[in-house]
Amino acid sequence: MPLQDLAILVIDENRIRASIIEDGLREAGHLRVTVVNEINEVARVIERDMPDVVVIDLENPNRDRLEHFFSLSRALRKPIAMFVDRSDAAAIEAAVEAGVSAYVVDGLKKERVKPILDMAVSRFNAFARLTRELEQARSELEDRKVIDQAKAILNRTRGLGEAAAYALLRKTAMNQNRRIVDIAQSLVTADSLLGPEE
Amino acid sequence: MSLIALSAGFLPLLDSVLLVLAREKGFAAAEGLDLHLVKESSWANIRDRAALGHFDFAQMLAPMPIAATLGLNPLSVPMITPMMLGLGNNGVTVSAELRARMADAGAPTTLEAGPVGAALAKVVRAAERKLRFGVVHQTSSHNYELRYWLMASGIVPDRDIEIVVLPPPLLPEALGSGGIDGYCVGEPWNTVGVKTAGAHIATVKASIWRSSPDKVIGMRAHWAEANSEIVAGLIRAVHHAAVWCGERDNHQEIADIMAAPHYLGLPAERILPALSGQFDIGGGVAARVPDHFVPYAGAANFPWTSHAAWFYSQMVRWGEVEHIPERARAAAMTFRPDVYRSALTPLGVPMPLADSKVEGLLAAPTEVASTSRTLVMGPDGFFDGVRFDPEQIEAYIAAQRG
């Protein structure tokens, strides 16, 4: 059976990540890839597509439900083995680290499934990096907002200009061995407590 | 002295409370352990990450370590249970519509498994469609006790009622419009169903199988052997947490601790009923279930090999595994009273002298043979009065095959 004949089902409530994986599988020559974001559709899709491999994210609270469904389903032939091979500890480890799990129809050759799992793992990791960077960018933006607020408070209460206000925050942070944003946050909190009631 | 770091997985359920208290009240630290608790999203994740050693141990459904030892799961590694995380805590909750039909069929609001089950059987026979009930996992005490209750009430699971699996936090909203008519789950998710989905608690685990276990500490057998001192320290820490949790005066503080977003993430008043046994069972009806969740009393943390044997008998009953005597022995030996005893003997904790007991022998609270002072246990056993004698497991399995 050529590569494209393997039916692969990707279950992921995160649409962006799901489409990243789908793209990867298609680039690798898999043509029969189905993506499901809504858990309630899974039963119908499995009966229709009879997947050979099911890939699901580990954050999904419906994993227990899926396993039970697989165990009842006539569409998936006999017991489904998770991951590729019980002896392949490194591959399993990598998958769980990345946050992905796979279910495979019994009897499917390891060398046929391994590349699919490897691809899913690498795409999951890439997605995690992406979101981490996004988080970081977001929190830097938040930090800047808090520092700007603190500077405005110092300007209002002590008449400090922007540069002087920042210098004061920085000096205080260094003296107390804390981050500038923490000092700024304390000042904003204190100001809201001490300020006029709204 | 630096603490030894231990990581453990748990699911947002009340009976993770002993692990939470071991950490939050300093019982783990006093044993030299830095307990790191990781909230998981599914039992499958708990199972896989415990098997891989990502967790040193985990809160598990009582039958899970048995299934792992018997190789019923992918990634199976031999597991042991050195300690139980209390007794009870489950309930069976039904939609308002089903409760109304059960009431018409004569179901009382006393939570008694027998008459409630009889009324449900009448509803099932008259129903124009197959009812559907949710449980949290196939290999769970919930699944086995729900099925036991149904069968003993004259309802054949799968044939008369469909049983599906859903994660605990999703059960309340799945009721009614969500496609299920009832569910069996641990607290606080019965109370949440009453408060948010207009549901009714129909019966409780404490009535279906009195003094029965639900969640356990599960860990890899090899790891436990290689780290016996750490395991002993963990057992002592959880023991102190269990004693503390059993004190009524601590209930409010416990509910406040469990309410935190990184534990249950629910208001404390949703958590209190399971601790106090004072329930709103729906429709403004109050009920008192003193033994709903028993964290310590009556040897609640003691890992009876007979409990493991009963779970095994139900795995056989529902076709998950075929019975052979060696397998029954391996299943029973997954629970390790010897490990529990050796950790707590130095503390003079009263413990049963037996490893195994006949379920259904104690009709009332009874003083039993123990290591020191007095130990009062029970009542125990099943609501239908059928006894389970682990020495007669073959006959029990044969009788259930019917």
Task: Put the structure in a nutshell.
The complex is a heterodimer of chains A (198) and B (402). Chain A has seven helices and five strands; from the N terminus they run βαβαβαβαβααα.
Sequence-ordered SSE layout with sheet pairings:
The complex is a heterodimer of chains A (198) and B (402).
Chain A: E1 8-11, H1 15-27, E2 33-36, H2 42-49, E3 53-57, H3 63-72, E4 81-82, H4 89-98, E5 100-104, H5 110-158, H6 162-176, H7 180-194
Chain B: E1 4-10, H1 17-24, H2 27-30, E2 33-39, H3 43-52, E3 57-61, H4 63-69, E4 79-84, E5 87-88, E6 90-94, H5 96-104, H6 113-126, E7 131-135, H7 141-152, E8 161-165, H8 171-174, E9 182-186, H9 189-197, E10 200-204, H10 205-208, E11 209-210, E12 215-220, H11 221-226, H12 228-245, H13 251-258, H14 268-276, E13 278-280, E14 286-288, E15 293-294, H15 305-317, H16 325-332, H17 337-344, E16 366-368, E17 375-377, E18 381-382, H18 393-401
Parallel strand pairs in B: 1-2, 1-3, 7-8, 7-9
Antiparallel strand pairs in B: 3-12, 4-12, 5-15, 6-9, 6-10, 11-18, 13-14, 16-17
Helix pairs in contact in B: 1-12, 5-6, 12-17, 13-14, 15-16, 15-18
Commentary on this structure:
Chain A is of the alpha/beta class and 198 residues long. Chain A has 2 domains: 3-132, Rossmann fold; 135-194, Winged helix-like DNA-binding domain superfamily/Winged helix DNA-binding domain (Arc Repressor Mutant, subunit A), CATH 1.10.10.10. Chain A contains 7 helices and 5 strands, in the order E-H-E-H-E-H-E-H-E-H-H-H. In chain A, strands 2-1-3-5-4 form a 5-stranded mixed sheet, with helices on both faces. In chain A, strand 1, helix 1 (15-27) and strand 2 (33-36) form a beta-alpha-beta unit. In chain A, helix 1 (15-27) runs antiparallel to helix 5 (110-158), helix 4 (89-98) runs parallel beside helix 5 and helix 6 (162-176) packs across helix 7 (180-194). The radius of gyration of chain A is 26 Å and the shape is elongated. Chain B is α/β, with parallel strands linked by helices and 402 residues long. Chain B has 3 domains: 4-87 and 212-263 and 295-342, 3-Layer(aba) Sandwich (D-Maltodextrin-Binding Protein, domain 2); 90-210, D-Maltodextrin-Binding Protein, domain 2 (3-Layer(aba) Sandwich), CATH 3.40.190; 354-401, no CATH class. In chain B, 40% of the residues lie in helices and 19% in strands. Chain B contains 18 helices and 18 strands. Chain B has helices at residues 17-24, 27-30, 43-52, 63-69, 96-104, 113-126, 141-152, 171-174, 189-197, 205-208, 221-226, 228-245, 251-258, 268-276, 305-317, 325-332, 337-344, 393-401; strands spanning 4-10, 33-39, 57-61, 79-84, 87-88, 90-94, 131-135, 161-165, 182-186, 200-204, 209-210, 215-220, 278-280, 286-288, 293-294, 366-368, 375-377, 381-382. In chain B, the strands form 6 sheets. A 5-stranded mixed sheet of chain B has the order 2-1-3-12-4, sandwiched between helices. In chain B, strands 8-7-9-6-10 form a 5-stranded mixed sheet, sandwiched between helices. In chain B, strands 5-15 form a two-stranded antiparallel sheet. In chain B, strand 16 (366-368) and strand 17 form a beta hairpin. In chain B, helix 5 (96-104) crosses helix 6 (113-126), helix 13 crosses helix 14 (268-276) and helix 15 (305-317) runs parallel beside helix 18. Chain B is globular and about 65 Å long. The relative contact order of chain B is 0.16. The mean pLDDT of chain B is 94. Chain A binds chain B through residues 58-65, 67-69, 71, 81-83, 86, 92-93, 96, 101, and chain B through 41-45, 48-49, 52, 54, 74-75, 136-138, 164-167, 169-170.
